[in-house]
Design goal:
The structure is a homodimer of 154-residue chains. With 154 residues, chain A is mainly alpha-helical. Chain A has a single domain, classed as Orthogonal Bundle (Arc Repressor Mutant, subunit A), CATH 1.10.10.10. Helix content of chain A is 57%, strand content 5%. In chain A, helix 4 packs across helix 5. Chain A is elongated and about 60 Å long. Chain A starts with 5 loop residues before the first helix and ends with a helix. In chain A, 36% of the residues are buried. The model of chain A has no long low-confidence stretch (mean pLDDT 88). Chains A and B meet through helix 1, helix 5 and helix 6 of A and helix 1, helix 5 and helix 6 of B. Chain B binds a DNA duplex (30 and 30 nucleotides) through helix 3. Chains A, B: It comes from Qipengyuania qiaonensis. Chains A, B: This is Rrf2 family transcriptional regulator. Chains A, B: It holds the Pfam family Rrf2. Chains A, B: InterPro entries: Tscrpt_reg_Rrf2 (IPR000944), WH-like_DNA-bd_sf (IPR036388), WH_DNA-bd_sf (IPR036390).
Amino acid sequence: MKRDSRLSGVLHVLLHLAEASGPVTSEAMAKAMQTNPVVIRRLMAGLREAGFVHSEKGHGGGWAIARDLASVSLRDVYDALGAPELFALGHRTEAPGCLVEQAVNAALDDALRDAETLLLDRFGAVTLAALSVDFHARMVASGKSIDLETVHAG
Amino acid sequence: MKRDSRLSGVLHVLLHLAEASGPVTSEAMAKAMQTNPVVIRRLMAGLREAGFVHSEKGHGGGWAIARDLASVSLRDVYDALGAPELFALGHRTEAPGCLVEQAVNAALDDALRDAETLLLDRFGAVTLAALSVDFHARMVASGKSIDLETVHAG
DNA sequence: TATCATGCAATATATGATGTTACATGAAAC
DNA sequence: GTTTCATGTAACATCATATATTGCATGATA
């Protein structure tokens, strides 16, 4: 089962944006993330609509953070991505006529619903600012400096 | 993100097996589940190794439950399937050099780990017997009778 | 007006689950 | 014993879909 890395990717991009002094182009981000600029734009589209980032065309354009990092939780980012499916487990049939399958689905859904609530609550409790703090702590601990180009070069 | 329906499918099959009087062939199950006999055998392989079901070759052969339903939890079945990935969310990079990505991964993993614990505990608390009880309650409530062939005909 | 950057649709590629075929093994029926 | 039935498994085919790419339109700056 292939896993969806969009949330991970977007958070990564956002934190790098937060570190940058000016706007960063899709191309620069794409190079750093080893992917295509269009993929970056697709990822960011939801965040732009949600007002978390701002994009500018033309010379000197690119992407920039539009909100205080402390005001955006992982849950917000997740929602801005369209609240993608959290679980890899699914049902064989969504609306089964078979009563056995209904019972199975009900049991699984019950557990999944609770886990989903827990997970989203956790996401809601973590802000981008908190991630940034953690990142800076790691930077101090490692003694390394960082910038988008050099860190993602290797 | 495509979802893995193996757990759902196996549970469905197991409960039907429990209702059956004698061994059920892969072909019969496959017809009921609208899939291929080989797929059924693949699903059941882990359960056979775990000792939850028994298979017999030749005339009158097929699959049968080998354990008391009360002694098998959803967690056991999940493990017998090889403990497949629970979450659709993953990391962009598993062992990133980038400290930003490390911080992101750590935050996500933290939340996911707790959700996983909750989910597996829930699975551990539900036995096949409980599912069977629920199924019979549904059958009474609906007034319908059931058997493998007729229920899955349409 | 030439260049740079996003916006977006359409298409291509890659990956992995699911489905299928083929054949070997073993058990029961005849 | 030989025929039939069923599982066991590997190899292969298909299909779904996430990801990547291409192409072109739009708008902003030099």
